[in-house]
Amino acid sequence: MNIQFKKIDAFKKYDFLISCLPLQGCVELQRDMPMKEHPWHRHENNETLIILDGKMEFYYEGHSRICFPGDVIFLPKNILHGSKALEEGCNYLIAFETLEHLK
């Protein structure tokens, strides 16, 4: 399974955030200060990341991509990856499952 990227309108934030909630459970809002790095790691579950504000470099298995507000990352479980917030930092949502309705 490969990592997939997509662009959405992240500026209608409230309705969008509500649509990202699972039937039962939660999502995480993450704030990374400028140049904060999450070094190489893996997860045991699928994740969906949605960039809300700022920019992030997302890197994985020989690739790197600069992500902007509205970018969605569909991250399959067990994929080695990392990220680094850029100059203005980055705020993003993490759902601990694949949000199929965004694909």
Automatic annotation (TrEMBL):
It comes from the Bacteria. Coiled coil: none annotated. One of its GO terms (molecular function) is isomerase activity. The keyword Transmembrane helix does not apply. Residues 33-85 form the Cupin type-2 domain. Keywords: Isomerase. This is Predicted mannose-6-phosphate isomerase. The lineage of its organism: Bacteria, Pseudomonadati, Pseudomonadota, Gammaproteobacteria, Pasteurellales.
